[in-house]
Amino acid sequence: MNLNKAENTPPVWPDRFTALKKEITAGHEEELTKSWRALVLALKERTKEFIETGPEIVPQVEYAELESLPAEKVAEVKRKGCVVIRNVVPDEEVLKWKADLRKIIEDNPQLEGLPVDDKQFFYLYWSKPQVEARAHANILAATAWLNQLYTGEGADKRVLTAPLTYADRFRIRKPGPKWAFHPPHVDGGSIERWEDPGFRQIYRDILSGEWAKHDAFDIDGRIVAQSDLYDRPNQASVFRTFQGWLAMSDTGPGEGTLRVYPDIKLGNSYIILRPFFSPIDPAGDLFDPDNWKFDISAPEFPGIILERDGKFHGPRISDATHPNMRTGEAMVSVPLVHPGDMVFWHSDLVHSVEEEHHGNGDSSVMYIPAVPATKQNVSYLAKQRDAFIKGHTPPDFGRDGDESWVLGVGRPEHITTAAARKAMGLEGFEELQLISVV
Ligand SMILES: [Fe+2]
Question: Which domain of life is it from (predicted)?
Answer without folding.
Answer: Eukaryota
